[in-house]
Amino acid sequence: MSRPFPDTHDAHGDPALHPWLLPAKAFVGVWRGRGRGAYPTLTEGFAYEQEISVSHDGRPFLHYEANAWLIDEDGAPLRPSGRETGWIRVAPDGYLEALLSHPTGISEIYTGKITGAVIEMTTTEVIRTPLAKEVTSGRRRYTLDGGFLSYEHETAAVGQPLAQHLSARLGQVKPGA
Ligand code: HEM
């Protein structure tokens, strides 16, 4: 039985996007594309594909979900990789706060700002379970440009200061595609 109030990836349909989320309107949808990763502790970089979903149910928050898998040089999937899920809240002036949770025992709280087609956000707190790797902070910048969502993600972890971990460019997946 389907739920009576499912999330939608449509920022223009029913339910209407809550007015507080208007600064984030263009980010709502399903995005899919490729990225590259590295970290000072890793001997080599890696390539990945990722799908990011940003949806809403008419209330003043967005549901964010991202799934990534490593790929070889031909783009063939190798194995599942980073996943995260969480919630994004936005104020009418573009102030943004996000709670993102990872299966690796890490929860990040970000605050930031949406300025036109750019989201910039930095962690105020990272909470870890006893088994988690030592991740202490993060910084992300998402940019919309010509129907593509690109982002850069830096993280401070395992004794390293903030350093680039991920960089990707995703295209919008049209409904029904
Ligand atoms: C697209 C999402 C992501 C992908 C594809 C990805 C991929 C990887 C890969 C391939 C590694 C090397 C170890 C391994 O093979 O598992 C790694 C390590 C690591 N990643 Fe990510 N990652 C992602 C997101 C994240 C996020 C969101 C964080 C932090 C919150 C993070 C923190 C780390 C840390 C701390 C390490 C270990 C570094 C070390 O111990 O040397 N990753 N990641």
From TrEMBL:
Pathway: Nitrogen metabolism. Its EC number is 5.99.-.-. Gene3D superfamilies: 2.40.128.20. Its cofactor is heme b. The keyword RNA-binding does not apply. Signal peptide: none annotated. SUPFAM superfamilies: Lipocalins. Residues 21-170 form the THAP4-like heme-binding domain. It catalyses: peroxynitrite = nitrate. Keywords: Heme, Iron, Isomerase, Metal-binding. CDD domains: lipocalin_heme-bd-THAP4-like (cd07828). Binds 1 heme b group per subunit, that coordinates a highly solvent-exposed Fe(III) atom. Heme b binds at T41, K133, H165. It comes from the Bacteria. InterPro entries: Calycin, Nb(III)_bact/plant, Nitrobindin, THAP4-like_heme-bd. A motif (GXWXGXG) lies at residues 29-35. Pfam families: THAP4_heme-bd. Forms a 10-stranded antiparallel beta-barrel structure able to accommodate a hydrophobic ligand in its interior. In fact, this fold hosts the heme group, which is located in a wide surface cleft. Heme-binding protein able to scavenge peroxynitrite and to protect free L-tyrosine against peroxynitrite-mediated nitration, by acting as a peroxynitrite isomerase that converts peroxynitrite to nitrate. Therefore, this protein likely plays a role in peroxynitrite sensing and in the detoxification of reactive nitrogen and oxygen species (RNS and ROS, respectively). Is able to bind nitric oxide (NO) in vitro, but may act as a sensor of peroxynitrite levels in vivo. Belongs to the nitrobindin family. This is Peroxynitrite isomerase.
